[in-house]
Amino acid sequence: MRKIVVFSNMYPSTQHPTYGLFVKNQVGLLQSAGLDVDVVAIQNPEKGKIQALKKYMTWFFRSVLYMMKNRKKLSLTHAHYAFPTGIISLIGKKMFGIPYVVTVHGGDIDKMAARNQRIADMTKNILRQAESVIVVGDKLREDVINNFDVPEANVHVMSMGVDTSIFNYVAKVEAREKLSLPIEEKILIFVGNVIQAKGLLELVEAFDSLKMSFPDSSLYVIGSQKDGQFVEELRSFIREKDVEDIHFKEPLGQADLALWMSAADALVLPSYHEGFGLVALEAMSAGTKVVATDVGGLSYLLKDQAGILVEPKNPDSLAKGLWSALDENSNVIDETVVQAKIAQHSYETILEDLLSIYRSAEKGQVDHSE
């Protein structure tokens, strides 16, 4: 295999170190295996119509120019997100004969393709022309096959993986001492963007109910607060409900985040939809119970007692799930299943599967247009 280029509309920078970090981690994994990998990506998460148009157009032309210059060196391109990123890889195949792989992360199917028929048709073409389609969860596999007519044999389920060298077990007492957290307190953490679709209003309501059974408990909301309008709505709701012991923290680096996961009694992820739910897997790898809504990839990741699944948009169900996680006499988690899930999504397994997909794609272009 010669050179690979990864295209992504999300990638970290010094100013935004967690933006698309999962893509950077996979690139690093490939480079550690000796592959020659370049990246052409958007590193600026700022929104606004003019800003978005400018950055996407610049990225588009940089990407096409890169393929034009390197077409004889490239074995394949790898697009993260079907739309809009997959358009670049599709152009590379049509103009320069470069095969491509595309990873579907969820929002590109659940949200972007649902905007209008034109985007849906473009997404379908991108997916069907790809040598291989990688989906980060089983639910996405069903959607890609059934809703976009992609041949079943061409779709591979493979998460972005968990780095078990970072997200590993640390004794709760040790982790809390390092973070100066109370040893006896019940601690819940949420990790993710502070947006309505993550179910945070329901989480506040559920936590308020939980405090009756566990008065000495705290909730830490860790993540980006860029949606100022919703953050204010959330804070107003907390004041209105008069809920105490809810703390907000900005996004953390992976090593710090792993320590917080080890310190917590449970990670809670009450999302309305979730392509995979990587933070849930990371928490499992850190030895922490996970309470999450029974949606998308979470339904598959946490089934068979790997975690505690609750009804989406249902504060009562969420409160019961959190109570089960905090109850010391509750045996709701099957540790054998948890360890099997971690092994399935370890970097070693992911790398082996990804290299196999790349080798198949490199063997030659496949026309899926029929």
UniProtKB/TrEMBL annotation:
Domain Glycosyltransferase subfamily 4-like N-terminal spans what residues?
A: 30-165
> Matching InterPro entries, A to Z?
Glyco_trans_1, Glyco_trans_4-like_N, Glycosyltransferase_grp1
Domain of life, per lineage: Bacteria
Q: Where is the Glycosyl transferase family domain?
A: 174-329
PANTHER family according to UniProt? SULFOQUINOVOSYL TRANSFERASE SQD2, TEICHURONIC ACID BIOSYNTHESIS GLYCOSYLTRANSFERASE TUAC-RELATED
Which protein are we looking at? Answer: Glycosyltransferase involved in cell wall biosynthesis
Q: What's the source species for this entry?
A: Sporosarcina psychrophila
Taxonomic classification: Bacteria, Bacillati, Bacillota, Bacilli, Bacillales
